[in-house]
Amino acid sequence: MRFAARIGSVVLAAVVTLPAYAQQVQQGGAGGIHGKVVDRDGKPVQGAEIRVDNQTTHQPDFTKTNKSGDYSIVGLYAGKYKAYLFMNGKPVMVKGDGVGNELAVSETTDLRVNFDLKDAPTTTVVVPGVPSGNNKEKAAADKKNNEEMKAAFNLGAAAMKANNFEEAVKQYQLAAEKDPGQPAIFGNMGVALAALKKYDDAVAAYRKSLALKPDDAPTQALVSLALANAGKVDEAMLAVTEVAKLDPALAGQSYYNLGAILTNRGKSKDAVEVFKKAIAVDPRNAPSYYQLGIAYFSSTDTIPQAVTALEKYLELQPAGADAETAKQFIAAAKAQAPAKK
């Protein structure tokens, strides 16, 4: 009994957009640190050098104070940082030193970090990688390398917005060559590769991102999505299990996406079990009830369960996008149900 044929074509199950990981990393490097340097009398210090170090990648960024003693370093990736003040080439102060005291920068943070020389310690400030004057050349090279990495990353982001995914992959690869310690680079590369339907390559890129940031649930969810699109359902299920450990709420959405892909591949029986998992995580996930009902209609033996699922969908979303289709399926099922004696 083919209800779809009677009612009309059923729209393929839609994969729900995952929670903005791709958008976030495309905007990556949006954090910043700014502040002011004053001398022991409270007067602004011009020309003092500020260096901030990412404590995960150990990537340094540099700037100098203006005539008002102000400085600003933008384009920082989310993470924990230390900030160093140099006077006449020598480190004199550090902020964010000590475990738990690091300066926390997020994608939306513009953190203020001031330096007052009256608080400068009498002990020597140790700066990693800057023991002598010879390292000035290395610092300059590191700065150039970092600027080139950011330039390539930004070109990749621009290409992504223009849907030029081949160019995006190329630019992210260049950025990764300059700095292989940035998870955002590999995350975005994975998104671009997935858009090109190069799912195995996308999974490899996502996993490089996860190697640098293992607790990133959205990236793990993208791994599951790419594996499912590659037809590797068992691996995709394992990936969703990892998502559940990191973010149970996101796991519900990931199960739904996996079920949608299975439905669209004609694997309705497999999809049933996955939509059940999505509902177990979030019992008010109306789209999962709808798709579960559609999947149940693939077999005459499960028509009653299909009706129950669709009725639950209508209870949760009586005016939902699929409400009319759900009503038609329910009506068709009840019309063909054996009459009770």
Secondary structure blueprint with pairings:
Elements: H1 3-7, H2 21-26, E1 31-38, E2 49-54, E3 60-64, E4 70-76, E5 79-87, E6 90-95, E7 103-105, E8 110-112, E9 115-116, H3 135-161, H4 165-178, H5 183-195, H6 199-212, H7 217-229, H8 233-246, H9 248-264, H10 268-281, H11 286-296, H12 303-316, H13 323-336
Descriptors for this entry?
341 residues; Immunoglobulin-like; 2 domains; alpha+beta; single chain; 4-stranded mixed β-sheet; Serine Threonine Protein Phosphatase 5, Tetratricopeptide repeat; 5-stranded antiparallel β-sheet; 14% strand; 9 strands
Determine the CATH superfamily of the largest domain.
Tetratricopeptide repeat domain
Binned, the helix content reads 40-55%
- Describe the largest sheet: 5 strands, antiparallel
Distance between the amino and carboxyl termini: 22 Å
Shape summary: elongated
| Low-pLDDT stretches | 4-12, 16-28
What integer is the average pLDDT? 83
- As for the number of domains, it is 2
CATH architecture identity of the largest domain: Alpha Horseshoe
Annotation field: number of helices: 13
